[in-house]
Amino acid sequence: MAKKSFFYFFAFVILILCKNNNSCTAAEEIKLYELKKGDFSIKITNYGATVLSVIVPDKNGKLDDVVLGYNSNDDYKNDTTYFGGLIGRVANRIGGAKFELNGVEYKLPANDHGNTLHGGSRGFCDVMWTVEDFQEDSHITLTYNSFDARQILIIKCCETGFPGDLSVKVTYMFIGTNKLAINMQAKPLNKATPVNLASHTYWNLGGDTSGDILSHTIQIFGSQITPVNDQLIPTGKITPVKGTGYDFLQPRTIGSELSEIPGGYDINYVLDNTKGKHFHRAATVQESKSGRKMELWTNKPGVQFYTSNMLDNVKGRGGFIYKKYAALCLETQGFPDSVNHPNFPSQIVNPGETYKHIMVYRFTAS
């Protein structure tokens, strides 16, 4: 009885400490790490394995930060936009905040109109990561251990209902000239679990204070989408983009058919020519004034294209106010709500297997 009483007392103390989601990591120090190679530099923090800054030259050699961000650590802790965060355990939405796996129903925090968004109320972008390796001119590797919320009572405040313990690793690295790779891996330790990691960086190739991205030209190498209902949950269908406002198979400006898409773009594209290939192109984006171009490759079957529709006068870096359409996100990943749609590619990873997600960006200017 004494041991049991001590356990419940300890659990109560931890629950109190964790009542505020961020307090579980309050004792750990948030640090900034910069990768730099010539004029190309990237800043990462161990809070949420978050991309804070990406600085690249334009066609005249002028340097600009091409991602949106905040001034302070507190801004990132209180963030609701997911600026630059490493998203998990499951990125995007899970309908009804629940799913069934191996005969067990798992209920998740409903942090988005009755659904689960980006891992729930405490996703991977809300926790402290451990820096495993850092070389300023090369790479940074961060790790995080995610616990089974059902296994230990005291962890419920810090995790969000997914089954099993999960070991997670992400490496940001330079490849060649002006190429950035993001290598995400995860290993279930004791139970099968869904895994769908994503990088939620907001891009504006004109610079983060240049205004909206509607004049950016984009090409998306996906001839189909997974349409959604009014809560942005996939219906389960897969439909062609041809003849719709979602068709970016040929390059065109983001704003050219925006009137056809009420509220802006926030949809998963089914990428073409993925079978039998280690990498495939997801998208290219170009901004005419700066001449900057960003090309994106991945090994995942989908890419979520989001035009920052929910930004509403957000105070960002340097006090600049980010408004609707201030940036775009290209989140390569598995399909949204795959755990509830058997016809979608499975996101279930079993013990002994390794989840692998790779993104490669190439930046040029001309």
From TrEMBL:
EC number: 5.1.3.3
Superkingdom field: Eukaryota
Keyword Endoplasmic reticulum: no
Catalytic residues as annotated in Swiss-Prot or TrEMBL: H200, E331
Gene3D superfamilies listed in its UniProt record: 2.70.98.10
Keyword Cytoplasm appears in the UniProt entry: no
Signal peptide: 1-26
Pathway(s) where this gene product acts: Carbohydrate metabolism; hexose metabolism
Pfam families: Aldose_epim
Reaction(s) this enzyme catalyzes, per UniProt: alpha-D-glucose = beta-D-glucose
One of the protein's GO biological processes: galactose catabolic process via UDP-galactose, Leloir pathway
GO molecular function, one term: carbohydrate binding
Entry-linked SUPFAM superfamilies: Galactose mutarotase-like
Binding residue positions for beta-D-galactose: N92, R93, H200, T201, Y202, D266
Alphabetical keyword list: Carbohydrate metabolism, Isomerase, Signal
Family: Belongs to the aldose epimerase family.
PANTHER family: ALDOSE 1-EPIMERASE, ALDOSE-1-EPIMERASE
Protein name listed in UniProt: Aldose 1-epimerase
Lineage, uppermost ranks: Eukaryota, Viridiplantae, Streptophyta, Embryophyta, Tracheophyta
